[in-house]
Design goal:
- It is a single chain.
- This protein is an alpha/beta fold and 109 residues long.
- The chain has one domain: type ii restriction endonuclease, domain 2, CATH 3.40.1560.
- It has three helices and four strands; from the N terminus they run E-E-H-H-E-H-E.
- The protein has a four-stranded mixed beta sheet with strand order 1-2-3-4.
- The longest helix has 20 residues.
- It is globular, with a radius of gyration of 13 Å.
């Protein structure tokens, strides 16, 4: 899971409150080298975008058919200003693909 496996979907499911199909990226790691982590995050987002665009999502998760799609980025650390700026740009790109991009902090375990 996480940014190390850029071509793997970390988690997927249907959000009961909204009916959205939610794909989740879980990154509980600390980012000592932010530029490297941002490149990995970009690769992960691109893989998720491709998963949706090529209809692999509907093949892998038939319940996603006809639903809106959201990608949740869950991180253990708050995002830095450069990471927040990148996430804003990525959310704009996602919007053009009819994908909602969201970020939440998670508690480290």
């Amino acid at each position: 899971m996480g940014l190390e496996n850029t071509h793997q979907i970390d988690a997927a499911g249907i959000e009961p409150d909204t009916g959205l199909c939610v794909l989740t990226i879980i990154d509980a790691a600390h980012w000592p080298d932010e530029q490297t982590q941002l490149k990995k995050l970009q690769a992960k987002f691109n893989a998720y975008f491709g998963f949706v665009q090529t209809r692999q999502l509907q093949e892998a998760y038939p319940d996603s058919q006809g639903r809106g799609v959201a990608i949740d980025l869950l991180t253990a650390q708050p995002l830095s200003p450069p990471a927040t700026k990148y996430l804003t740009k990525a959310a704009e790109s996602a919007k053009h693909l009819n994908i909602t991009l969201r970020h939440r902090l998670i508690s480290p375990t």
